[in-house]
Amino acid sequence: MAFELPSLSYAYDALEPHIDARTMEIHHSKHHNGYTTNLNNAIADSPLADQSIEEILSGLDLENKAVRNNGGGFYNHRLFWQVMSPNGGGTPSGALAEALDSAFGSFDEFKTAFSKAAATQFGSGWAWLCVHKGGSVEVCGTANQDNPLMPGIGCEGTPILGIDVWEHAYYLNYQNRRPDYINAFFNVIDWDKVSELYTAGV
Ligand code: MN3
Question: Hey, what domains does the chain have and what are their CATH numbers?
Answer without folding.
Answer: 20-202 (3.55.40.20)
